[in-house]
Amino acid sequence: MPHIPQETEVPRQRPNEIPHNEKLLSLKYESLDYDNSENQLFLEEERRINHAAFRTVEIKRWVICAMIGILTGLVACFIDIVVENLAGLKYRVVKDNIDKFTAKGGLSFSLLLWATLNASVVMVGSLIVAFIEPVAAGSGIPQIKCYLNGVKIPHVVRLKGLCYKCPSVPYQAVPTGGLASSMSCPLPSLLFQIFEYFRRDTEKRDFVSAGAAAGVSAAFGAPVGGVLFSLEEGASFWNQFLTWRIFFASMISTFTLNSVLSVYHGNAWDLSSPGLINFGRFDSEKMGYTIQEIPIFIFMGVVGGILGALFNALNYWLTMFRIRYIHRPCLQVVEAMLVAAVTATVGFVMIYCSRDCQPIQGSSVAYPLQVGNDTEQHSGPCWLFCADGEYNSMATAFFNTPEKSVVNLFHDPPGSYNPMTLGMFTLMYFFLACWTYGLTVSAGVFIPSLLIGAAWGRLFGISLAYLTKGSIWADPGKYALMGAAAQLGGIVRMTLSLTVIMMEATGNVTYGFPIMLVLMTAKIVGDYFVEGLYDMHIQLQSVPFLHWEAPVTSHSLTAREVMSTPVTCLRRIERVGTVVDILSDTSSNHNGFPVVESNPDATQVAGLRGLILRSQLIVLLKHKVFVERTNLNLVQRRLKLKDFRDAYPRFPPIQSIHVSQDERECMIDLSEFMNPSPYTVPQEASLPRVFKLFRALGLRHLVVVDNRNEVVGMVTRKDLARYRLGKEGLEELSLAQT
Amino acid sequence: MPHIPQETEVPRQRPNEIPHNEKLLSLKYESLDYDNSENQLFLEEERRINHAAFRTVEIKRWVICAMIGILTGLVACFIDIVVENLAGLKYRVVKDNIDKFTAKGGLSFSLLLWATLNASVVMVGSLIVAFIEPVAAGSGIPQIKCYLNGVKIPHVVRLKGLCYKCPSVPYQAVPTGGLASSMSCPLPSLLFQIFEYFRRDTEKRDFVSAGAAAGVSAAFGAPVGGVLFSLEEGASFWNQFLTWRIFFASMISTFTLNSVLSVYHGNAWDLSSPGLINFGRFDSEKMGYTIQEIPIFIFMGVVGGILGALFNALNYWLTMFRIRYIHRPCLQVVEAMLVAAVTATVGFVMIYCSRDCQPIQGSSVAYPLQVGNDTEQHSGPCWLFCADGEYNSMATAFFNTPEKSVVNLFHDPPGSYNPMTLGMFTLMYFFLACWTYGLTVSAGVFIPSLLIGAAWGRLFGISLAYLTKGSIWADPGKYALMGAAAQLGGIVRMTLSLTVIMMEATGNVTYGFPIMLVLMTAKIVGDYFVEGLYDMHIQLQSVPFLHWEAPVTSHSLTAREVMSTPVTCLRRIERVGTVVDILSDTSSNHNGFPVVESNPDATQVAGLRGLILRSQLIVLLKHKVFVERTNLNLVQRRLKLKDFRDAYPRFPPIQSIHVSQDERECMIDLSEFMNPSPYTVPQEASLPRVFKLFRALGLRHLVVVDNRNEVVGMVTRKDLARYRLGKEGLEELSLAQT
């Protein structure tokens, strides 16, 4: 009866090469199952549990969410404190040495020192990522998106990932994402050690959603934004109770961060630090907006969309280059160090060339850089630097943590920045950030985008104030905010959640409407040219990602054309040898097998009775749940749901299970382990219909049946993700083993 | 072949009596179909449409959402302006007359005047509701909840409802909800006249979601809260694009309101009025909170939960009384007038008895009431009233619009209110509001709840300040806010959306965490005693409302036990007479019929081929789409999708379609009109599994099949809504025709 699926006969050749074609879909990614396998064991357990026990389970869920919130908050605190101290340390080392060496050997020596320092710090982080935990690379958001979408990205929710990611983040001196979301997602795995009832994909995915929300919440002090991020990126089925739990985790997370940081900063109990990245309070009394400004905001959205598309296009070419030529870990480390050194050099040259000295005012400048003035009294090279009581604003922008620079751009009073400085800074930072994204370091794109946008937004505001002869409404800080939103929106193309995140991070509800307008415009304009950065990277990695809806023009396809066929079926009472052979067959890449009636005289197709997962079969074989063929009336060993849970999520490979020749002739009864009511679709169902069912219920396998309920095929995630709307209409991606 | 469903044989007796048992489920409500009938016509149309045309459709959706936003904003403006002017008028009339009559004939005359005035104003609104448009009663939120849940509440989304509701709202002098959400939902119907492509339940429900969100957004200046309200109450399947459109409508709506009201109030372009109900800005610099206060907030949540449960329990008994004894329209009008007169009397007596005179300060008091002091120089009855330069705070609380009173309670400086006044006011207003909810007037529970909560919250804050000897953190305004949240949360049991609404209405993100805590606590405590007010009323009306999940202990039920059986099936090529008979059979209450193979020698059950809706059959009969039995090879008349759309949503009854005796013998081929791939479940599927499929896809009919794909039953909304988790475990509601 078993059929070997035809499309999987491609041998596993060239295993190390990553597909360098975005029109491929990789078969290496497994899917998550958001649908419970409702077999007899499961139902028996659920029926045994009474109402009070269900309440206990529900309370446990809340406890886990609270723990996720607390742990996320603590991790975020740790990152914040380490990053802040490292930035201070770096500033002091560089400043001291510049002072010393400029006196002795000239500027070139200082430059060398700075570049080396930068490169060596990055090297440590890069080594960890390149050699130990590749999943810690980047901002983690694409990985989280994929996981919430239902794709199992190896290691993404493992505690190990967190352990490596945590220490590697602070090394990223250049554009530290600071996004704690990717860090918090592995936390549920830790909690699973304690609460074994929750060891299944459904629950795990819910908790990962909570972790992602808690991470965003802690990063920006945006609990509602966190929930919306989690929903926008992940959830397909909106469940009120789940949403409340996610919201609870978000709130706890920002509250924990707030409490701990308040204590750390010495003003205990006043809760003044809601998030890692705080945009500072925009006082809406002073800084409202008027209807006349709305076209200006929309224009900024257009600019953001175009710049974002440019950023993404450049990064696309760069990533293609990296995939082709820089896929060896040591090369990746070298590239990361190169970027760090170049960043330092560019920074140094720009500080050197810019003569943008500003009087020191207020407390917004933590690390003013005024070099050399103590030693050489404004002679020699020091005419480039600043006098006492002044600071070099370009140097400040380079030496601050980028988060602080963003806040400065938002809130420094008009006249704090020289337009030339801002222009140069935008230009340089744009290319450096573009080069940095995709390096093998744990650095994201969020903060750099905000910084670029804030810089050109402020420049725009200054120009506007100049053109309108200093109208009161042309506050450069406001335009810096809009520019930041436009640039970030143009790159990542988020709207609802980003609007709320910006609203919460600025503590200002009034700017909601213009921010939404800017983000919408940036998204529409950006989408016209090229995809969002995260989607682009997901696609470049050939992940079978399911979008929200099937391509609009896909009504012409039906399940019959989409499904994999023929599909390997098992009989309800099956020979152990057959099961082992099917599982050992590397060309059979499905993880679920329809179970059909074991009528011996059945024709080739037979009525569907259930669905059993590869992982379940493995557990059955491991526990030797079978009887001899001659003793079919003997009762086979009973398993408990616990046996399956204990093996979750890393089921042993079939090779590790020894089945003797005698045992191969035994029979295995799948009836009580298979899911007796798998979801099915008829062959005539259109692709959008199949898609909707699949997506709404978070399925992993969908059996296609004919009019007599006989199995004719199987639809999995890859079969649906293959169809995509390209420039010239519907296109079909090829499948690849790599 | 047609079977008469057994459970529908209850004759249509006692049609006027409303079931006065909450353990009933009414059969009179039809369901909405969120799933498109994917028949040949539909697929042909979809396949004809190319990518560009789909983009046009998408743009049209955005345009409709913008229009919904604009219209909602304008309706809200209209309400705001009328209510404000009426409140001013009422104040002036009462004040002038009290001055006049107190001088002449004593206070009893003034009282009579006020009571009569109040009663007659309410009478007008009540007459409209009781005799013309009953659906305009109440706040409209339960109706919207039901509609978004998928229950077709007659008239709720009809333009007529809006036309009657608009003028009736301003008459509610007592506790005007001001919630524009229920008003905006009929707007999509208007737009359907223009955009015929969208004439189907799916699209309509999406636009109603947008309308509901826009309404909340305009009411509270809370665009994000509006979106969350719409999602929390309605959506089951989260779709990113839909959410963005809803958000867009929300933003447009609050922006429109803001612009128009800014112009109306004379400060054009400054956008200072984001919502109808503005809680005033809480300055978070001055009014933070500390960790020590959190237990206090939780305690307030407990109080709110208990008071809310008490409110709901009282209202439950009252509603049962009303259902039994006050179901004639004229009685309803009398009751409404009685409530108005009693409200006036209570108010008058309390103003008379309270001696709470406060110095007039600031601009927060729009209608200070200082009665009689001009004429009688503080002698006689005037010792009860106030001196020059002072106002009676009780009178202010009664004469202001409740929205303004809430704002005053939040923002008046400490010492503005006498604790006695607040206590008395809370007590009286609690019972009056409870009596008012459920009257045949368009009045909601939102603002009265906030007002009650703000009053006791402020009282609590004053006591706390007294106990702690005036700590700086014991600001009564902050506690008024928390009290308002606790009371409202205790009554309506919303959490996420309400948190965000409160955050946006106060323009303050800092209070998010305590508000969430208060709302969560209030919900948990309240749920311990009794359901939320809206859910209670939905249940009292026997609406088949589907909650988020199936009852937790329902795994023991399977589709076989839940489904209706036997089910009326049609053959693929069916005799017209049979169709007419089935449709005319009043005992057959299903609106969808499985289509089975028309094999003449089939046994009683036969393989499922498709599903056809009652409405589709009606259109087919109306257009005489059939051929003579003797000429089966003739091609039957082709219909277009437009023919079905033109009949939407009010399909004619079967009685209005004349079918001659000859025509009865003709045959009708359903193949191209039926949905060939209806969703099915096997008999063994558990109730939670069936529920999940049904809820996630927004189905109306779900066919239950056996192993051979033969129809054995049908699951509809009523079959699922019947099972509920009661105090003693799973309970099953009975079905009733009324």
UniProtKB/TrEMBL annotation, chains A, B:
SMART domains: CBS (SM00116). The keyword Ion transport applies. GO terms for cellular component: lysosomal membrane. It is a multi-pass membrane protein. Its main location: membrane. GO terms for molecular function: chloride channel activity; chloride:proton antiporter activity. The keyword Cell membrane does not apply. Keywords: CBS domain, Chloride, Ion transport, Membrane, Repeat, Transmembrane, Transmembrane helix, Transport. It holds the Pfam family CBS. InterPro entries: CBS_dom, CBS_dom_sf, CIC-7, Cl-channel/antiporter, Cl-channel_core, ClC. It is found in: Membrane. Residues 674-732 form the CBS domain. The chain crosses the membrane at residues 62-83, 111-132, 207-229, 241-264, 294-314, 334-353, 420-439, 445-467, 479-503, 509-530. PANTHER family: CHLORIDE CHANNEL PROTEIN CLC FAMILY MEMBER (PTHR11689), H(+)_CL(-) EXCHANGE TRANSPORTER 7 (PTHR11689:SF136). Belongs to the chloride channel (TC 2.A.49) family. This is Chloride channel protein. It comes from Catharus ustulatus.
